[in-house]
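Quick illustration, no need to memorize.
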Amino acid sequence: MFPTILLIIHVVGVIIWIGGVAFVTMVIFPMMYRTEGSLEKALLFQGVEHRFSAIVRWLIAVVGGTGFYLLSAKHGLSILSAQRGLGIVSMLFVWTFYTAVLLLEKKIFGKLFADPEKTDMDRALKMINAMHWVLLTLSFTAVAGGIWFAHR
């Protein structure tokens, strides 16, 4: 029963995490593009990103912890080198990539927005939006791979 509860926590965490990335990517960024003025765009982005990254930091810990426990309890690490483990490898890759991005977030945003007077907000937002699309694509690929390899 304990592994089932952990699996539920893991999957719900992934749904909230990836759903949030999808919402930011597909709803918030288009809203920012329609917002007039660089300051307003920056404030909207900063508010959304600050709140969402705090949630995602927590979710990454929960999803990572439950995922590693479930992996070791059900399969052990040996599955990572088997063809059946490709879905798990893709999930681990996405989790690691997200974790790295979140750890480097302040540094990345610090460089992008170091000088607000010289920052081309539209260009910066397009770069961040493109990164969100990459993250979202990787996320959906990992979910699809996890399902595919778990049910073959």
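The radius of gyration is 18 Å.
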